[in-house]
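User: Please predict the structure of the protein below. I'd like the answer in C-alpha cell form so I can feed it into my own downstream comparison script.

Assistant: Understood. Taking the following sequence of 241 residues as input:
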Amino acid sequence: MNRIRLGILQTNHDKSVAVGDAFPDDAHRFRDLFDQQEQRFQYRVYMTIGGEVPIDIDEQDAYMITGSPLSVLDEYGFTDALMDFIRRCDAAKKPLFGACFGHQAIALALGGKVARSENGYNVGIEETTFDNPKSWMTPSHSKLPLYMFHEDAVTQLPEGCVRLGSSNGCENASFAKGNHIFTTQAHPEFSHEFMSCVLKFTESSLPEAQAKSAWASLDLKQRGDVYGVWCTNFFKQALER
C-alpha cells in the first residue's frame, strides 16, 4: 500500500510543565490517530507556529492544520504565511484538513468569518450532528460525540463551502469545500487522559457550572476514531481524483 505523504502544519507549541511536558504534541496526537488505521502515512511536520510553511505545496500529497490555544482573531508572526498557504491549497485543489484552529483559519483565509462566543468556552464531549455527509464520511454516522475545547467559532462559511455538521455549542462544527477541503471544530485526536489534563489545567478560568458540566461529559464515549477514518478516506478520495 502506497503511503500518503501528509504534511502536518503545527500551530501550537505548549511549553507548560503540566500539559506540554506531560503529553505528545499536536502533530504526534494526529499521527497516533491515523496510525490506528490500515492506510500508512509518511509524515512531515512543519512548525508553523515558528513561521514554517511548505514553500511548494507539492512537497506533500496532502496537508492538515492542527489546533492551538491561540486565537485566529489575533495576529502572529506566522499568520500571513499560513493564510497564503491555505489560499494556495484551495486554488490548486490540494487536499487540506483543518481541526479547531485549523478549521477557523481555513474559514478566515477563504473569506468566512470567525467570532468569539458570547457564551464563553465550549468544553467537553459534545455531539455533532452530520446532516449533509460527504462520500468519504464512512462508516456512516449521523451523530458523533467528540471532544471540544474552543471559545472562537466560525460564524459565516466562505463562499463555496458547505456545512457538514453542527452541535449545540457550535453551529458550523464541520464544513467542506468541493472534495479538497474538510474541517472540524472538534478534537478527534484528543485522548481522555489529555482532555482531563487540559480541563484540570484550565478549569479555574471557567465558570463553576461550566467546569462541572465539562467534567460530567467526559463520562461519555467519544468517537474521534471514526472522524480519523473519515479524514483518511478524505485524503484517499481527494488524491484519487
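That's the full C-alpha cell string. The chain has one domain: 4-240.
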